[in-house]
Amino acid sequence: MAGFVRHRRSKRIIATMSGFEADLLRSLAAQLVELLRNEAAVPSENADPLEALFEGGDFAGPTTEPDDPVLARLFPNAYQDDGEAASEFRRYTESTLRDGKARAAATIIDALEDAGLPSEPGSEELTIDVELDLPTAEVWMRALTDLRLALGTRLGVEEGDEDYWYALPDDDPRGQAHHIYEWLGYLQETLVHAVTA
What we know:
The structure is a single chain. The chain is mainly alpha-helical. It has one domain (5-196). 58% of the residues lie in helices and 7% in strands. It is built from seven helices and three strands; from the N terminus they run E-E-H-H-H-H-E-H-H-H. A three-stranded antiparallel sheet has the order 1-2-3. Helix 5 (134-155) packs antiparallel against helix 7. The longest helix has 32 residues, at 83-114. It comes from Nocardioides silvaticus. This is DUF2017 domain-containing protein.
């Protein structure tokens, strides 16, 4: 894959992907959507009864940091030194933030399928051209950031640990997952350049 480029005439942002790359990206985005949506936000036991009337609204958010390390990375505490303020902030914002991140990841899936990738996996032989307008490209940038954060957190990637990853044998699944992490970084970088060109 050559990464994203900006078409001079149409100003659209284009990338040519193999079916394997597109399937992989779709799978990662679908896993992120599932993670974000399956961890349903539940009101705390001490919720105000009046707020309970607004089920599904902004009042229904969680008040504690998620147990899952990926979700904790995607939704860090807003106030490190004030647990009560962090809890209140999370309560009123996390549900909306989750929905926004899930919608952004779903935008990747939709764009890949709109570009001709069949909705079912198994199209490795295809080559598709993904074309994005500027607003959609900006959504993709946010979603790619979330995908990299999620994968990097699962792998335990740290700043300056490249030698560790490059020393792993080719058949080590952690090394293969790290290659995907780097590939997502490449996609993100070329997309940023294409958007700002």
